[in-house]
Specification:
Layout (H helix, E strand, L loop, with lengths): L6 H13 L2 H8 L3 H15 L4 E4 L2 E4 L1 H24 L6 E8 H8 L3 H7 L3 E8 L12 E5 L7 E14 L2 H6 L12 E5 L5 H9 L8 E5 L2 H9 L5 E5 L3 H5 L12 E11 L6 H16 L6
Parallel strand pairs: 3-4, 3-5, 7-8
Antiparallel strand pairs: 1-2, 5-10, 6-9, 6-10
Helix pairs in contact: 1-2, 1-3, 1-4, 2-3
Protein backbone atom coordinates (compact mmCIF):
# COMPACT_ATOMS: atom_id res chain seq x y z
CA UNK A 1 0.00 0.00 0.00
CA UNK A 2 1.13 3.53 -0.78
CA UNK A 3 1.86 5.69 2.24
CA UNK A 4 0.25 8.95 1.10
CA UNK A 5 0.15 12.23 2.99
CA UNK A 6 -3.32 13.64 3.76
CA UNK A 7 -4.74 14.74 0.39
CA UNK A 8 -6.79 17.64 1.76
CA UNK A 9 -3.71 19.03 3.47
CA UNK A 10 -1.78 18.67 0.20
CA UNK A 11 -4.45 20.67 -1.62
CA UNK A 12 -4.42 23.45 0.99
CA UNK A 13 -0.62 23.55 0.96
CA UNK A 14 -0.44 23.76 -2.85
CA UNK A 15 -2.84 26.72 -2.91
CA UNK A 16 -1.05 28.50 -0.05
CA UNK A 17 2.34 28.07 -1.73
CA UNK A 18 0.99 29.46 -5.01
CA UNK A 19 -1.02 32.29 -3.44
CA UNK A 20 1.85 33.35 -1.21
CA UNK A 21 -0.18 33.69 1.98
CA UNK A 22 -2.49 31.77 4.27
CA UNK A 23 -5.11 34.51 4.03
CA UNK A 24 -5.28 34.40 0.23
CA UNK A 25 -5.39 30.60 0.28
CA UNK A 26 -8.32 30.82 2.69
CA UNK A 27 -10.16 33.16 0.31
CA UNK A 28 -9.67 30.79 -2.63
CA UNK A 29 -10.67 27.69 -0.66
CA UNK A 30 -13.41 29.18 1.49
CA UNK A 31 -11.50 28.37 4.69
CA UNK A 32 -10.50 30.44 7.69
CA UNK A 33 -6.90 31.43 8.29
CA UNK A 34 -6.82 29.02 11.22
CA UNK A 35 -8.10 26.11 9.13
CA UNK A 36 -5.38 26.71 6.54
CA UNK A 37 -2.76 26.87 9.27
CA UNK A 38 -3.97 23.60 10.83
CA UNK A 39 -3.90 21.72 7.51
CA UNK A 40 -0.36 22.89 6.76
CA UNK A 41 0.73 22.03 10.31
CA UNK A 42 -0.69 18.52 9.81
CA UNK A 43 1.28 18.12 6.58
CA UNK A 44 4.45 19.43 8.23
CA UNK A 45 3.95 16.88 11.01
CA UNK A 46 3.55 14.10 8.46
CA UNK A 47 6.69 15.19 6.56
CA UNK A 48 8.71 15.96 9.66
CA UNK A 49 9.89 19.37 8.46
CA UNK A 50 8.73 22.97 8.14
CA UNK A 51 7.14 24.08 4.88
CA UNK A 52 6.61 27.75 5.73
CA UNK A 53 8.65 30.26 7.73
CA UNK A 54 7.53 33.61 9.06
CA UNK A 55 8.87 36.67 7.25
CA UNK A 56 7.51 39.81 8.87
CA UNK A 57 3.77 39.25 9.19
CA UNK A 58 3.56 36.67 6.37
CA UNK A 59 4.19 32.95 6.19
CA UNK A 60 6.48 32.23 3.22
CA UNK A 61 7.14 28.83 1.64
CA UNK A 62 10.68 27.50 1.98
CA UNK A 63 12.68 26.74 -1.20
CA UNK A 64 12.11 23.01 -0.69
CA UNK A 65 8.40 23.61 -0.16
CA UNK A 66 8.12 25.56 -3.43
CA UNK A 67 9.66 22.64 -5.33
CA UNK A 68 7.31 20.26 -3.51
CA UNK A 69 4.32 22.44 -4.40
CA UNK A 70 5.24 22.37 -8.09
CA UNK A 71 5.37 18.57 -8.04
CA UNK A 72 2.01 18.42 -6.28
CA UNK A 73 0.54 20.77 -8.88
CA UNK A 74 1.70 18.51 -11.70
CA UNK A 75 0.19 15.51 -9.92
CA UNK A 76 -3.13 17.33 -9.50
CA UNK A 77 -3.07 18.19 -13.21
CA UNK A 78 -2.70 14.49 -14.03
CA UNK A 79 -5.51 13.59 -11.65
CA UNK A 80 -7.75 16.21 -13.24
CA UNK A 81 -6.98 14.98 -16.75
CA UNK A 82 -7.63 11.37 -15.72
CA UNK A 83 -10.92 12.29 -14.06
CA UNK A 84 -12.01 14.26 -17.12
CA UNK A 85 -11.14 11.35 -19.39
CA UNK A 86 -13.04 8.87 -17.23
CA UNK A 87 -15.91 11.16 -16.31
CA UNK A 88 -19.32 11.43 -17.88
CA UNK A 89 -18.97 12.66 -21.48
CA UNK A 90 -22.09 14.78 -21.14
CA UNK A 91 -20.84 16.59 -18.04
CA UNK A 92 -20.08 20.21 -19.06
CA UNK A 93 -16.70 21.73 -18.37
CA UNK A 94 -17.03 25.22 -16.87
CA UNK A 95 -14.23 27.72 -17.53
CA UNK A 96 -14.14 30.65 -15.12
CA UNK A 97 -12.81 33.77 -16.86
CA UNK A 98 -12.00 37.09 -15.16
CA UNK A 99 -11.99 40.14 -17.45
CA UNK A 100 -12.28 43.94 -17.25
CA UNK A 101 -15.91 45.06 -17.37
CA UNK A 102 -15.89 47.13 -20.57
CA UNK A 103 -13.76 44.58 -22.42
CA UNK A 104 -16.04 41.74 -21.35
CA UNK A 105 -19.25 43.54 -22.35
CA UNK A 106 -18.02 45.04 -25.63
CA UNK A 107 -15.59 42.46 -27.01
CA UNK A 108 -15.52 39.11 -25.23
CA UNK A 109 -19.15 38.26 -24.48
CA UNK A 110 -20.49 39.12 -27.98
CA UNK A 111 -18.01 36.61 -29.43
CA UNK A 112 -18.58 33.71 -27.04
CA UNK A 113 -21.18 32.04 -29.27
CA UNK A 114 -18.34 31.27 -31.68
CA UNK A 115 -16.40 29.46 -28.97
CA UNK A 116 -19.47 27.58 -27.75
CA UNK A 117 -20.18 26.43 -31.30
CA UNK A 118 -16.68 24.98 -31.56
CA UNK A 119 -16.77 23.40 -28.08
CA UNK A 120 -20.42 22.77 -27.11
CA UNK A 121 -19.35 20.78 -24.05
CA UNK A 122 -17.61 23.76 -22.45
CA UNK A 123 -19.37 26.56 -20.61
CA UNK A 124 -17.69 29.92 -20.04
CA UNK A 125 -18.54 31.83 -16.87
CA UNK A 126 -17.33 35.43 -17.06
CA UNK A 127 -16.75 37.54 -13.97
CA UNK A 128 -15.89 41.21 -14.45
CA UNK A 129 -13.57 43.56 -12.64
CA UNK A 130 -13.10 47.32 -12.85
CA UNK A 131 -9.67 48.83 -13.38
CA UNK A 132 -9.75 49.90 -9.73
CA UNK A 133 -10.06 46.25 -8.68
CA UNK A 134 -7.93 44.39 -11.19
CA UNK A 135 -5.76 42.41 -8.79
CA UNK A 136 -5.29 38.81 -9.84
CA UNK A 137 -7.28 37.21 -7.06
CA UNK A 138 -8.19 33.56 -7.06
CA UNK A 139 -11.36 31.88 -8.20
CA UNK A 140 -10.76 31.81 -11.96
CA UNK A 141 -9.18 29.48 -14.50
CA UNK A 142 -7.76 32.31 -16.57
CA UNK A 143 -7.77 36.10 -16.55
CA UNK A 144 -7.66 38.81 -19.21
CA UNK A 145 -5.75 41.97 -18.40
CA UNK A 146 -4.07 44.85 -20.19
CA UNK A 147 -0.31 44.78 -20.05
CA UNK A 148 2.47 44.10 -20.15
CA UNK A 149 2.83 43.86 -16.38
CA UNK A 150 4.95 41.64 -14.15
CA UNK A 151 2.81 38.55 -13.60
CA UNK A 152 5.32 36.16 -12.00
CA UNK A 153 2.72 33.55 -11.08
CA UNK A 154 1.09 33.41 -14.52
CA UNK A 155 1.83 32.50 -18.11
CA UNK A 156 0.98 35.58 -20.19
CA UNK A 157 -0.02 35.28 -23.85
CA UNK A 158 -0.68 38.50 -25.84
CA UNK A 159 -3.70 38.30 -28.10
CA UNK A 160 -5.13 41.75 -28.91
CA UNK A 161 -3.58 45.16 -29.66
CA UNK A 162 -5.48 48.33 -28.84
CA UNK A 163 -5.62 51.98 -29.93
CA UNK A 164 -7.78 54.92 -28.82
CA UNK A 165 -9.52 57.49 -30.97
CA UNK A 166 -12.40 59.95 -30.75
CA UNK A 167 -15.92 58.49 -30.85
CA UNK A 168 -19.40 60.00 -30.87
CA UNK A 169 -22.97 58.99 -31.54
CA UNK A 170 -24.13 59.44 -35.17
CA UNK A 171 -27.14 61.40 -33.90
CA UNK A 172 -24.89 63.93 -32.16
CA UNK A 173 -22.74 64.32 -35.28
CA UNK A 174 -25.86 64.85 -37.39
CA UNK A 175 -26.76 67.81 -35.16
CA UNK A 176 -23.24 69.15 -34.79
CA UNK A 177 -20.90 67.78 -37.47
CA UNK A 178 -17.16 67.41 -36.90
CA UNK A 179 -15.63 68.31 -40.25
CA UNK A 180 -12.40 69.67 -38.75
CA UNK A 181 -10.67 69.69 -35.39
CA UNK A 182 -11.78 73.26 -34.74
CA UNK A 183 -15.37 71.95 -34.63
CA UNK A 184 -14.59 70.39 -31.23
CA UNK A 185 -15.21 73.79 -29.66
CA UNK A 186 -18.48 73.96 -27.82
CA UNK A 187 -18.85 70.18 -27.49
CA UNK A 188 -19.05 68.30 -24.19
CA UNK A 189 -16.00 66.11 -23.57
CA UNK A 190 -16.81 62.93 -21.65
CA UNK A 191 -14.12 61.28 -19.56
CA UNK A 192 -13.55 58.60 -16.94
CA UNK A 193 -11.84 58.79 -13.56
CA UNK A 194 -9.95 55.58 -14.23
CA UNK A 195 -8.71 56.79 -17.64
CA UNK A 196 -7.49 60.34 -16.94
CA UNK A 197 -5.02 60.44 -19.84
CA UNK A 198 -7.50 59.68 -22.64
CA UNK A 199 -8.27 63.24 -23.72
CA UNK A 200 -4.81 64.80 -23.12
CA UNK A 201 -3.12 61.99 -25.08
CA UNK A 202 -5.54 62.19 -28.00
CA UNK A 203 -5.34 66.00 -28.21
CA UNK A 204 -1.54 65.72 -28.16
CA UNK A 205 -1.70 63.21 -31.03
CA UNK A 206 -3.99 65.63 -32.88
CA UNK A 207 -1.47 68.43 -32.32
CA UNK A 208 -3.92 70.79 -30.72
CA UNK A 209 -4.49 72.30 -27.28
CA UNK A 210 -7.66 71.73 -25.34
CA UNK A 211 -10.38 73.47 -27.38
CA UNK A 212 -12.06 76.51 -25.92
CA UNK A 213 -15.67 76.66 -24.86
CA UNK A 214 -15.89 72.99 -23.91
CA UNK A 215 -17.43 71.39 -20.87
CA UNK A 216 -16.15 68.26 -19.14
CA UNK A 217 -18.22 65.47 -17.65
CA UNK A 218 -16.40 62.71 -15.84
CA UNK A 219 -17.83 59.34 -14.81
CA UNK A 220 -16.43 56.76 -12.42
CA UNK A 221 -16.32 53.77 -14.80
CA UNK A 222 -15.63 53.52 -18.50
CA UNK A 223 -18.74 51.50 -19.33
CA UNK A 224 -20.84 54.37 -17.94
CA UNK A 225 -18.92 56.83 -20.11
CA UNK A 226 -19.54 54.67 -23.19
CA UNK A 227 -23.25 54.61 -22.53
CA UNK A 228 -23.28 58.40 -22.23
CA UNK A 229 -21.42 58.69 -25.55
CA UNK A 230 -23.88 56.38 -27.32
CA UNK A 231 -26.76 58.39 -25.84
CA UNK A 232 -25.37 61.54 -27.47
CA UNK A 233 -24.24 63.17 -24.24
CA UNK A 234 -20.91 64.28 -25.69
CA UNK A 235 -17.68 63.22 -27.33
CA UNK A 236 -15.40 60.55 -25.89
CA UNK A 237 -12.22 58.60 -26.46
CA UNK A 238 -12.76 54.91 -27.15
CA UNK A 239 -10.62 51.79 -27.65
CA UNK A 240 -10.45 49.72 -30.83
CA UNK A 241 -11.03 46.97 -31.81
CA UNK A 242 -13.10 46.68 -28.61
CA UNK A 243 -15.70 49.10 -30.01
CA UNK A 244 -15.70 47.89 -33.61
CA UNK A 245 -19.12 46.27 -33.29
CA UNK A 246 -20.64 49.46 -31.91
CA UNK A 247 -19.44 51.25 -35.05
CA UNK A 248 -20.63 48.45 -37.33
CA UNK A 249 -24.07 48.54 -35.65
CA UNK A 250 -24.34 52.30 -36.07
CA UNK A 251 -24.22 53.09 -32.36
CA UNK A 252 -20.91 54.95 -32.63
CA UNK A 253 -19.05 56.91 -35.31
CA UNK A 254 -15.36 57.76 -35.66
CA UNK A 255 -14.88 61.29 -37.02
CA UNK A 256 -11.06 61.27 -37.15
CA UNK A 257 -9.91 57.62 -37.48
CA UNK A 258 -6.42 58.66 -38.56
CA UNK A 259 -5.75 60.30 -35.17
CA UNK A 260 -5.16 57.52 -32.69
CA UNK A 261 -3.13 56.67 -29.61
CA UNK A 262 -1.60 53.22 -29.15
CA UNK A 263 -2.45 51.61 -25.83
CA UNK A 264 -1.18 48.51 -24.03
CA UNK A 265 -2.77 45.40 -25.49
CA UNK A 266 -4.56 42.53 -23.81
CA UNK A 267 -3.02 39.35 -22.42
CA UNK A 268 -4.61 36.10 -21.37
CA UNK A 269 -3.13 34.89 -18.07
CA UNK A 270 -3.16 31.35 -16.74
CA UNK A 271 -1.58 30.37 -13.41
CA UNK A 272 1.46 28.19 -13.95
CA UNK A 273 -0.10 25.54 -11.76
CA UNK A 274 -3.58 25.76 -13.27
CA UNK A 275 -5.51 22.76 -14.53
CA UNK A 276 -4.14 22.49 -18.08
CA UNK A 277 -7.34 21.01 -19.42
CA UNK A 278 -8.15 20.73 -23.13
CA UNK A 279 -10.94 23.27 -22.60
CA UNK A 280 -8.57 25.86 -21.14
CA UNK A 281 -6.02 25.32 -23.90
CA UNK A 282 -8.75 25.62 -26.54
CA UNK A 283 -10.02 28.87 -25.05
CA UNK A 284 -6.56 30.45 -25.04
CA UNK A 285 -6.05 29.39 -28.67
CA UNK A 286 -9.48 30.77 -29.57
CA UNK A 287 -8.66 34.14 -28.00
CA UNK A 288 -5.40 34.35 -29.95
CA UNK A 289 -7.21 33.51 -33.19
CA UNK A 290 -9.98 36.04 -32.50
CA UNK A 291 -7.44 38.73 -31.74
CA UNK A 292 -5.51 38.01 -34.92
CA UNK A 293 -8.66 38.19 -37.05
CA UNK A 294 -10.11 41.29 -35.39
CA UNK A 295 -10.93 43.84 -38.07
CA UNK A 296 -10.85 47.44 -36.99
CA UNK A 297 -11.54 50.67 -38.82
CA UNK A 298 -8.28 52.00 -37.42
CA UNK A 299 -6.13 49.72 -39.60
Amino acid sequence: MRRLPPLHALHVFEVAARAGSYAQAGLELGLTHGAVSRQIAALEGWLGQRLFVRVGRRMVATPAARVFAQEISLSFDRLTAAAEACGRPQAPRVLKVSAPSSFAMRWLIPRLDGFHAARPGTEVAVTTTTSLQDALRGGFDLAIRRGPEPWPQHRAVPFLDEADTLVASPALLARRPLSALRDLEGHVLLGTETRPGDWPDWLAAAGMPRPGGVRRRVFDHFFVTLQAIEDGGGLGIGPFPVLERAVADGRLAVPFPEIRVARPGYFVLTPYDADKSPALTAFVEWLVAEGASALTILR
